[in-house]
């Protein structure tokens, strides 16, 4: 196993890694809409939060030597499912066909009261 760290994404806020690479797979921990330069949430609504979450995740994916085209699975956690359409509009700008498999679920609450958190799994192309 290899721990992945980058200053281009927020540091972990608990006892976990930004990502772990193992057996050709990359497991990216759930990312929040934190601007790594300030340590605070980006201002704005669900679209801005989703953008920052995916920018953070992309920085981690690239730091591990992967690309977003190698993402095979995404899990989206929303604090309110009424934000799904707006989140999805932003999400669609980060990925191309064939899109990763995905689940999107509403949760009671996210860390730091974020509106969205996204975790990813990537696999090296053979």
In words, what does this structure look like?
With 126 residues, the chain is α+β, with helices and mostly antiparallel strands. The chain has one domain (2-123): 2-Layer Sandwich (60s Ribosomal Protein L30, Chain: A), CATH 3.30.1330.40. It is built from two helices and eight strands. The strands form two sheets. A six-stranded mixed sheet has the order 1-2-3-8-6-7, covered by helices on one side. A two-stranded antiparallel sheet has the order 4-5. Helix 1 runs parallel beside helix 2 (84-91). The longest helix is centred in the middle third of the chain and has 18 residues, at 46-63. The chain is globular, with a radius of gyration of 14 Å. The protein starts with a strand and ends with a strand. The model has no long low-confidence stretch (mean pLDDT 97).
Summarize this structure as a short list of keywords or feature phrases:
126 residues; alpha+beta; 60s Ribosomal Protein L30, Chain: A; six-stranded mixed β-sheet; two-stranded antiparallel ribbon; globular
Summarize the structure.
With 126 residues, the protein is an alpha+beta fold. It is 21% helix and 32% strand.
Work out the helix count: 2
Q: Helix amount, in percent?
A: 10-25%
Structural class computed from helices and strand pairing: alpha+beta
The assigned CATH architecture is 2-Layer Sandwich
| Mean pLDDT figure | 97
Describe the largest sheet: 6 strands, mixed
Q: Element order, helices and strands?
A: EEEEEHEHEE
Tally of structural domains: 1
Strand content: 25-35%
Could you tell me the number of beta strands? 8
- Termini separation comes to 19 Å
Shape assignment: globular
Tell me the CATH topology.
60s Ribosomal Protein L30, Chain: A
**CATH class categorisation:** Alpha Beta
Q: Runs with pLDDT <50, length 5+?
A: none
């Amino acid at each position: 196993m290899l721990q992945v760290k980058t200053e281009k994404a927020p540091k972990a806020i608990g006892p976990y890694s930004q990502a772990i690479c193992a057996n050709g797979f990359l497991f990216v921990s759930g990312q929040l809409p934190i601007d790594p330069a300030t340590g605070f949430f980006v201002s704005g609504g669900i679209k801005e939060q989703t953008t920052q979450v995916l920018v953070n995740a992309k920085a981690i994916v690239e730091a591990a030597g992967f690309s977003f085209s190698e993402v095979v699975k995404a899990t989206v956690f929303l604090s309110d499912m009424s934000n799904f359409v707006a989140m999805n509009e932003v999400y669609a700008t980060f990925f191309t066909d064939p899109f990763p498999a995905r689940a999107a679920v509403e949760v009671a609450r996210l860390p730091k009261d974020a509106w969205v958190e996204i975790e990813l799994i990537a696999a090296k192309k053979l």
